[in-house]
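Suppose a colleague, Dr. K., hands you the sequence of a protein chain of 464 amino acids and asks what its three-dimensional shape might be. Before reaching for any lab equipment, you can write down a predicted structure in token form. Begin with the sequence itself:
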Amino acid sequence: MSDRRSAATADAAKPTGFDIDHALVIFAIVLVDVLGLTLILPLLHIYAVRFNASALEIGVVVAAFPAAQLIGLPVMGSLSDRYGRKPLLIISQISTCIGFLMLAFAGSLWMVILSRLVDGLFGANLSTAQAALSDITTEEQRTQALGITGAAFGIGFIFGPVISLLMLEFSDELALPALAAAGYSMLSIVLTQLMFRETLPASKRSSAASSTIARSNVLSMLRYLSNPLLIVPLTLLFAQQLIFFGFESLLGVFTLNRLGLLAQGNAFVFIYVGIILVLVQVRFLGKWSRKYGEAKLVRLALALLAIGLLLLSATPQQANPLYERRVAEQRLLDKLPSSAEAIVGRFAISLPPQEGKGFGGFLWLMLALTPLSVGAALIRPSLNSMITKRVDSQQYGRALGIGTSFTGAADAVAPLIAGLIFQQSGAAAPFLVGGVVMFILFLFSLLVFKIKLTDPTLPAMSVS
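The predicted structure, expressed as tokens, is then:
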């Protein structure tokens, strides 16, 4: 009798299946959150420049959010494991909204920095949403489910910066994008309160005493990082994000240098990348993960990213058919500095000649971006799914919080490293270096996923 009762309890604890309606609610919440975030990201250094910030101070503004997330995300993840996803999701969204309002009404540089620290310490929206999706899926479904948040990110990163730039096109008021971002945060709070159903019932929550969560955070983080089952996907998560975000932050100046593309042309490029990201994550990711497993998808993604970056670095300098050098020169003079340029100095961007215009360079760019975009669509959901399979279900929030803090740390330094390489070695150099490093990571993944790793406290790593 007791055996039957135990079996029934175990069955009840398992996810009952992929609830598409619930997943769509989480998709909508993440999308709204990302739209708010991406309204602000391209303008952070401009908020700092408004207060005559030095290069070092601009660096502090840009790095404040990911630095705070390194501390805050694992703690917030642990709290969501203890008290449930919904209350922590709402707390995260409220703190994000407060951070945006502080930024909108900031009267000094320290207030700008404080606004980013508040959002970084308590804003665990994405990792909590990922943990919620992990709660309601089986291991076979998890990569597909986590791809939903990736698709939301892809759409948000297409439209958020466009909305932000359009706002500044018609108004010089920097408070406007921050207020719009706060509005998106308020909308996500309403969506969460009205539509989100708790995914972690009390019976499945962590039994750790809440008073010890923050105190044990550093020790638990060190334990995760010392475990070979987790250090591999976490290292790959950080390294690929460092390279990919460097690519993303410099793509606009690279296409200006190679093809003479201005804002409208670059908007088309980012839309193309976003469409591939969403298509792969919604249509193919789940099917491929069930057929091949996360390890093979990670290898494939790293190979595709390496190929795409190497092809991108070889893009010929040929102006697009609509290019007018005189207009591009004027736009170059009027262009606001990127966050990397604000710290390391302006990039010397040579424009393509007026003669010899054509589609060759543009078609090469599209060719390079295709494998790069497919690889980007596969890599993060696969690695995050791999992480969840290496921890107990009561630690999803903490583990995914650590993973998200790793990608945040990469986002903080990637534009600066890529910008320095661009400045010192030319426009193609960051992508060439990134492609070579991605290929090394691919070789590393071939080796490491062949090793059977075991740990007495965690499930063994799948090597299929």
